[in-house]
């Protein structure tokens, strides 16, 4: 089994410090397959290493965000060794969780199964009233895949997570926002412009170093207690005072000008 990284599978557009990624299999409602996965993850790797990219927005082409795993490929799983599939992937499927820059989903249509999981891997989710959310796994004879059993309860609470996982029912955008599954509901024609405007504000006015550290703090705090989280924050605060962004943040405020924060440093290794 081999994969190809066709540039057509995920379209790219740079808008200032924002990179827009568009999953591009509209004839399949952007159903997920290994080729799409490798292209998307490779673009995230490149965006993380690019000092000019400060925020990434991901959306879907056509009528959907991502309708889940490609069912035609899924039907062949019985004849394919799961270990072979795992070895074929260059990166773990939860790779977006380790992305150090803000990653925002503009959910323009169905986000189902693995497509919903990928949306949950993003930091924020903006959507439309008509967009459909469903875990779907139980209706395909599957389990709660790829960490969604960990993610969902932390977003919507245990009982709501079990409701969504056990029923596989469809939730529309307004209900998704009410339960914490989505962060903002916008008219379809405003979804992408509003998401890009939000992302542009982060790119222009927020410290890349601060955003990366805060993302790490939040994820680590999910698995720690309050005293540990406070101790970590105290250490990071001391470090942040020594970082050039702290001085720039204060000076730009006092001088009533936009800040000029340095790009996020590339991590070694």
Describe this protein's structure:
The protein has 269 residues and is an alpha/beta fold. The protein has 11 helices and 9 strands. Strands 1-2-3-4-6-9 form a 6-stranded mixed beta sheet, sandwiched between helices. Strands 5-7-8 form a 3-stranded mixed beta sheet. Strand 1 and strand 2 (18-23) form a beta hairpin. Helix 5 packs across helix 6 and helix 9 (208-221) runs antiparallel to helix 10. The protein starts with 9 loop residues before the first strand and ends in a 15-residue tail after the last helix. The model has no long low-confidence stretch (mean pLDDT 91).
Helix-strand blueprint:
Layout: E1 10-15, E2 18-23, H1 34-49, E3 55-60, H2 71-74, H3 82-88, E4 103-107, E5 111-112, H4 114-120, E6 124-127, E7 132-134, H5 148-156, H6 158-167, E8 171-172, H7 173-179, E9 184-185, H8 188-205, H9 208-221, H10 226-242, H11 244-254
Helix pairs in contact: 5-6, 9-10
- Quickly give the structural class: alpha/beta
- Residues in helix, %: 40-55%
Mean pLDDT: 91
Shape call: globular
Low-confidence residue ranges: none
Instruction: Give me the count of strands.
Output: 9
């Amino acid at each position: 089994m081999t994969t190809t990284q066709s540039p057509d599978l995920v379209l790219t557009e740079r808008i200032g410090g924002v990179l827009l990624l568009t999953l591009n299999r509209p004839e399949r409602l952007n159903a997920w397959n290994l080729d799409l996965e490798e292209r998307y993850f490779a673009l995230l790797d490149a965006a993380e290493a690019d000092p000019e990219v400060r925020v990434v927005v991901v959306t879907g082409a056509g009528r959907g965000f991502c309708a889940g795993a490609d069912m035609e490929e899924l039907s062949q799983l019985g004849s394919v060794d799961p270990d072979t599939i795992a070895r074929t992937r260059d990166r773990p499927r939860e790779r977006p969780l380790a992305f150090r820059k803000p990653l925002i989903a503009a959910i323009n249509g169905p986000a189902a199964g693995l497509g919903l999981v990928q949306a949950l891997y993003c930091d924020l989710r903006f959507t439309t009233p008509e967009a459909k959310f469903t875990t779907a796994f139980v209706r395909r004879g599957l389990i709660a895949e790829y960490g969604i059993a960990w993610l969902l309860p932390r977003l919507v609470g245990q009982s709501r997570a079990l409701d969504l996982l056990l029923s596989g029912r469809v939730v529309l955008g307004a209900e998704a926002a009410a339960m914490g599954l989505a962060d903002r509901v916008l008219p379809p024609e405003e979804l992408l412009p509003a998401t890009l405007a939000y992302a542009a504000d982060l790119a222009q006015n927020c410290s890349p170093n601060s955003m990366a550290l805060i993302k790490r703090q939040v994820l680590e705090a999910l698995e720690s207690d309050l005293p540990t989280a406070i101790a970590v924050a105290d250490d990071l605060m001391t470090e942040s005072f020594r970082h050039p962004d702290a001085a720039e943040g204060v000076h730009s405020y006092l001088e009533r000008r936009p800040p000029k924060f340095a790009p996020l440093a590339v991590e070694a290794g």
